[in-house]
Amino acid sequence: QVQLVESGGGLVQPGGSLRLSCAASRSIFSTYALAWYRQTPGKLRELVARISSGGSINYADSVKGRFIISRDNGNNMVHLQMNSLKPEDTAVYYCNAQHRVVTTAAYWGQGTQVTVSS
Q1: In degrees rounded to 5, what are phi and psi of residue 73?
Q2: Confidence (pLDDT) at 69
Q3: In terms of pLDDT, which residue wins out, 22 or 73?
Q4: Are 91 and 41 in contact (CB under 8 A)?
């Protein structure tokens, strides 16, 4: 079992930055891919960024060049640095962990609200 807790959300002006963090209850980075998703009311949850256990990274087209996903293996954390934020980035952001082998082993955090507004 893995517990994930997100933090760092809040209110920010357009063009500003936020850094989201996701803390895992145990060390999982050698066996799990980690990802950030986001969701707004009435829309499907969408993948924002993913980093594999081997370090491969992919981003949604809408955030490429603005967001950076990174791992802090020593502290069992994954971060999402969000720069040049736009109102369209407003959503609840969720941390996700997916086991590299056991497909059914997947975990979600509770989410953290990000609001981009003047």
Answers
A1: -60, -40
A2: 98
A3: 22
A4: no
Position with higher pLDDT, 114 vs 31 = 114
CA-CA distance, 68 to 53, in Å (whole number)?
16
* Residue in 85, 118, 86, 112 with CA at minimum distance from that of residue 10: 112
Given a contact cutoff of 8 angstroms between Cβ atoms, the answer to whether 108 and 53 are in contact is no
Which residue's structure tokens are 């893995």? 2
Structure tokens at 40: 């707004």
Q: What is the 3-state secondary structure (H, E, C) of 33-99?
A: EEEEEEECCCCCCEEEEEECCCCCEEECCCCCCCEEEEEEHHHCEEEEEECCCCHHHCEEEEEEEEE
**% of the chain residues with pLDDT over 70:** 100
- For residue 17, the tally of other CB atoms under 10 A from its CB is 13
Residue 28 reports pLDDT greater than 90 = no
Q: How far apart are CA 24 and CA 97, in angstroms?
A: 9
Strand partners, 59: 49
